[in-house]
Amino acid sequence: MSDELLVSTRKGLFTVAREGRGWEIAKVDFLADNVTLALSDKRSGRKYAALDHGHFGVKVHRSTADGWEEIATPAYPEKPEGLEENDMWGRPLPWSTVRIWALVAGGADEPGVLWCGTLPGGLFRSKDDGQSWQFVRSLWDHPLRKMWAGGGADLPGIHSILVDPRNSKQVSIAVSTGGIWHTGDAGETWTQRGHGMRAEYMPPEQVSEPNAQDVHCLAQCRAAPHRMWVQHHNGIFVSSDEGHNFTELTDVKPSAFGFAVVVHPREPDTAWFVPEIKDEKRIPVDGKLVVTRTRDGGKTFQTLTKGLPQSHAYDVVYRHALAIDESGDRLAMGSTTGGLWVSEDQGESWACVSHTLPPVYAVQFG
Amino acid sequence: MARVVFTPNIQRHVACPEAEAPGATVREVLDAVFAANPQARSYVLDDQAALRRHMTIFIDGVMISDRKDLGDAVGDRSTIYVFQALSGG
Question: The domain that contains B64 carries what CATH number?
Answer without folding.
Answer: 3.10.20.30
